[in-house]
């Protein structure tokens, strides 16, 4: 009885709170309806599959980014790490002559290692994650160019399989669904996931409660690297080759997806479902603008405005929560 | 009354989502008077004052400033009406200097640039009012919670307000600083400033207050003179009387097993050559002035900070330096002094916050134990009477005192047997304090040991079996519960102060 319940009062539907909490989803629905009306090309099977494939890379990268942002950091290297992992995988297959499955696994390991280095530089080297991963961005992109000598490398058939189809369903969409399930399982059910929220929300309180904050940070970046590698392999698989300039600038899409999905850049908040919606919003906008023949220059302007809007919603959300 | 109130909250109501927190309450602040707000944790005091401070807008009723209906849509608007607020939770920028924090938003400028000299001068003047002598260039984050509170007070005082709101300003202060604050308040009263004052230290009410408005569950209960006897105030506040404010039940025959042994512990610049033992069933109180090194000592024992030399032993096993996890495994539970900065993850739920210390140990195969955690959290929330509408609400939305109980609750769930408590009842109401003391009793009765640092002398005197007094990082003396009085403790704590000045 002592955990007192305060008297509830009847109030009409609180649309402000609802909008603040589900803005991205509402935006996505509105966007889709608008596109269905605006162009007959939007709601076709082929276009929807296209959207699915495009969203898979962005979303998988963004899932990894969600861990990092929830834990209070930022990872600018995911695009470059994706490219490096794919390129390394191609190199393992073509130049080192490893079997295809080992080349695939090798690519994932490269991503994981890059992440571990990011995390260690942040947690033990005391570099801000922004700086550590900015350095990694440059190093990883450079290594990609060194390995490839600036030319594409053919991927192993196992990697190409990731870009193919099973029956009518594109493999990237299957991988996307699996990655989403795994990521949300980690974030919601595991000790690691719950710890991420604590570290991002208040690292000192987490530390004083006995959470191994440094190890958690390393693991978080390692996961981001692993998810980046997976995204890189998906991308390479679709083209049957690893491209030296693959995924350039994708880190910004990933960050945007996470923020649109309701995470806070100051840490401690964020969900995989939100990130998924955020990635969809980005991809659907691009797709729609393409269908409507808007130039790619203007597309950048629009995407920028959407991000500003999403962050504005974040501010509103904080305000309604704190007051 | 012929004097017109400066501010009146008239029949105000405030709801958050589905929950009504303030219902139809009226309070006025008169010039030259101190209006006290009294109520249990979660009664709605802070919510009420936030409507005057421009943080919240009332959902019903109105605010009158100088008799005219006024809306205060922002803190800025409130300041423009001459209303300054010292909030319960500190609002300082940790990386900025003391001077910059005091003058935040009102930096003196010269030719468009911040006038550093003037900035320091004005900040020093404001700090001198409350007797805080520190280097104004120190980053605020490096100060302990008490000094941060003093900086916050100086910041509000430097605004030259007509109305000053003080939400538990004394919770983190020792008697000494509290006296300095009260002297300033007396002076402001002379100058016709109206004040709204909140405190859970009932003895302070008669000392500075004029009238007391009691609220319970968000409702107005009574308005009484500040001279009303304490037990009557308690009865109005909690709806029943509290027999014994300090229900310490020490063992008749204290056990001889040493649970915690600290030997020659030294950390340069913080504390020097500290040795003591705590036996099973014992509560050891540590008294001292702000800056005596009590918090640093507690943190070192808990593994939160490293120390230079010496050792910490729990039940015969020496703990590694600076290893919080090892300390927790040995049974240590540490309630830090600053709940907002060090105790809580504010965006996380009450449930999560109660469970962090046991997150890993209760897990199976890396999977968090959700059902078990919820069961344990609900049980401890009930035990500590944490007032909330659901255990899943962000802990940020709990009242200050209830947040404090949650930090304590975490270690109850962890079944800690050696509790290191740094201001464990800061901001906790009289009723809930007794609950916490009872929990301390049950922990010592089960063979546990407790070290308690507190700035509240009555609490130290009432709950400790033995008292250590620290001064300037050293042990100044030890007193048994029987010998200790306010005077003996204070003499030890401050003996050199007169000589130094
Ligand atoms: N933003 C919010 N959302 C939901 N509930 C809230 C919010 N802010 C406050 N409350 C609730 O309102 C009630 C009153 O809180 P308030 O902080 O005013 O209490 P208080 O009287 O100041 O208590 P204390 O003595 O512990 O500081 C509490 O039950 C609290 O949980
Ligand atoms: Mg309060």
Automatic annotation (TrEMBL), chain A:
Molecular function per GO: transmembrane transporter activity
InterPro entries named among the record's database cross-references: ABC_transp_permease
The keyword Transmembrane helix is annotated on this UniProt entry: yes
Entry's localization field: Cell membrane
Gene Ontology terms: cellular component: plasma membrane
Transmembrane segments: 20-39, 51-70, 76-94, 101-121, 127-148, 169-187, 216-236, 257-285, 297-316
Annotated membrane topology: Multi-pass membrane protein
Entry superkingdom: Bacteria
Keywords: Cell membrane, Membrane, Transmembrane, Transmembrane helix
UniProt protein name: Sugar ABC transporter permease
From TrEMBL, chain B:
A GO MF term: ATP binding
Keyword terms of this UniProt record: ATP-binding, Cell membrane, Membrane, Nucleotide-binding, Repeat, Translocase, Transport
Domain of life: Bacteria
Listed Gene3D superfamilies: P-loop containing nucleotide triphosphate hydrolases
InterPro entries for this protein: AAA+_ATPase (IPR003593), ABC_carbohydrate_import_ATPase (IPR050107), ABC_transporter-like_ATP-bd (IPR003439), ABC_transporter-like_CS (IPR017871), P-loop_NTPase (IPR027417)
GO CC terms: plasma membrane
Membrane topology reported for the UniProt record: Peripheral membrane protein
Predominant location: membrane
SMART domains listed in its UniProt record: AAA (SM00382)
ABC transporter domain ranges (all copies): 7-242, 255-497
Location(s) in or outside the cell: Cell membrane
Protein's name in the database: Sugar ABC transporter ATP-binding protein
Organism annotation: Cryobacterium zongtaii
């Amino acid at each position: 009885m002592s955990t007192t319940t305060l008297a509830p009062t009847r109030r009409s539907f609180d649309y402000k709170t609802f909008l603040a909490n589900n803005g991205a989803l509402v935006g996505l629905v509105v966007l889709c309806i608008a596109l269905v009306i605006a162009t007959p090309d939007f709601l076709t099977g082929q276009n929807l599959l296209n959207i699915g494939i495009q969203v898979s890379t962005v979303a998988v990268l963004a899932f990894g980014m969600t861990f990092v942002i929830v834990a209070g950091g930022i990872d600018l290297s995911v695009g470059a790490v994706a490219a490096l992992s794919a390129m390394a995988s191609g190199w393992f297959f073509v130049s080192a002559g490893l079997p295809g499955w080992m080349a695939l696994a090798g690519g994932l390991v490269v991503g994981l290692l890059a992440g571990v280095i990011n995390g260690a530089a942040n947690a033990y080297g005391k570099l801000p994650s922004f700086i550590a991963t900015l350095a990694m961005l440059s190093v990883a992109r450079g290594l990609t160019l060194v390995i490839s000598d600036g030319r594409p490398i053919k991927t192993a058939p196992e990697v190409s399989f990731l870009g193919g189809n099973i029956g009518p369903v594109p493999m990237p969409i299957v991988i996307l669904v699996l990655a989403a399930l795994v990521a949300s399982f980690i974030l919601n059910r595991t000790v690691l996931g719950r710890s991420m929220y604590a570290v991002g929300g208040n690292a000192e309180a987490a530390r004083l409660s006995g959470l191994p904050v440094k190890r958690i940070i390393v693991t978080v970046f390692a996961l981001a690297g692993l998810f980046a590698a997976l995204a890189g392999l998906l991308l390479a698989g679709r083209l049957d080759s690893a491209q030296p300039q693959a995924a350039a600038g994708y880190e910004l899409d990933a960050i945007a997806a996470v923020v649109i999905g309701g995470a806070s850049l100051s840490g401690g908040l964020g969900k995989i479902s939100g990130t998924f919606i955020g990635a969809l919003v980005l991809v659907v906008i691009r797709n729609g603008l393409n269908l409507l023949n808007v130039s790619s220059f203007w597309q950048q302007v629009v995407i920028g405005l959407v991000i500003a809007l999403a962050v504005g919603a974040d501010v509103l959300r904080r305000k309604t929560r704190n007051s | 009354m012929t004097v017109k109130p400066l501010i009146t909250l008239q029949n105000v109501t405030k709801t958050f989502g589905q929950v009504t927190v303030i219902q139809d309450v009226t309070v006025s602040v008169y010039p030259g008077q101190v209006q006290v707000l009294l109520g249990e944790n979660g009664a709605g005091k802070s919510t009420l004052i936030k409507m005057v401070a421009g943080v919240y807008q009332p959902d019903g009723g109105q605010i009158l400033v100088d008799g005219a209906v006024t809306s205060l849509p922002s803190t800025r608007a409130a300041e423009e009406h001459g209303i300054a607020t010292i909030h319960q939770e500190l609002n300082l920028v940790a990386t900025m200097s003391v001077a910059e924090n005091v003058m935040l938003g009102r930096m003196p400028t010269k030719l468009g640039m911040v006038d550093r000299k003037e900035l320091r001068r004005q900040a020093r003047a404001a700090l001198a009012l409350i007797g805080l002598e520190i280097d104004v260039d120190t980053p605020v984050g490096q100060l302990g919670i008490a000094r941060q509170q003093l900086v916050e007070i100086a910041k509000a005082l430097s605004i030259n307000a007509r109305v000053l709101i003080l939400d538990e300003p004394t919770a983190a202060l020792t008697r000494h600083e509290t006296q300095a604050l009260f002297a300033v308040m007396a002076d402001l009263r002379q100058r016709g400033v109206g004040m709204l004052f909140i405190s859970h230290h009932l003895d302070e009410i008669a000392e500075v207050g004029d009238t007391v408005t009691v609220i319970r569950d968000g409702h107005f209960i009574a308005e009484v003179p500040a001279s009303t006897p304490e037990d009557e105030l308690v009865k109005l506040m909690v709806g029943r009387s509290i027999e014994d404010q300090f229900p310490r039940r020490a063992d008749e025959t204290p056990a001889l097993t040493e649970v915690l042994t600290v030997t020659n512990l030294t950390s340069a610049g913080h504390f020097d050559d500290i040795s003591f033992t705590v036996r099973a069933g014992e509560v050891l109180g540590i008294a001292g002035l702000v800056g005596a090194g009590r918090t640093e000592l507690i943190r070192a024992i808990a593994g939160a900070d490293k120390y230079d030399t010496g050792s910490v032993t729990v039940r015969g096993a020496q703990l590694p330096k600076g290893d919080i996890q090892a300390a927790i495994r040995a049974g240590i539970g540490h309630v830090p002094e600053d709940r907002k900065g060090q105790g809580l993850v504010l965006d996380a739920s009450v449930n999560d916050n109660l469970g962090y210390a046991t997150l890993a140990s209760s897990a199976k195969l890396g999977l968090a134990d959700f059902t078990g955690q919820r069961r344990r959290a609900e049980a401890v929330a009930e035990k500590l009477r944490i007032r909330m509408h659901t255990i899943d609400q962000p802990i940020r939305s709990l009242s200050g005192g209830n947040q404090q109980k949650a930090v304590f609750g975490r270690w109850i769930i962890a079944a800690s047997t050696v509790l290191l408590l740094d201001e464990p009842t800061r901001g906790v109401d009289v009723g809930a304090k007794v609950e916490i003391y009872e929990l301390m009793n049950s922990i010592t009765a089960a063979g546990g040991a407790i070290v308690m640092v507190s700035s509240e002398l009555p609490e130290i005197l009432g709950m400790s079996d033995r008292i250590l007094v620290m001064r300037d990082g050293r042990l100044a003396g030890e007193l048994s519960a029987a010998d200790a009085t306010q005077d003996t403790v204070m003499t030890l704590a401050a003996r050199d102060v007169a000589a130094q000045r």
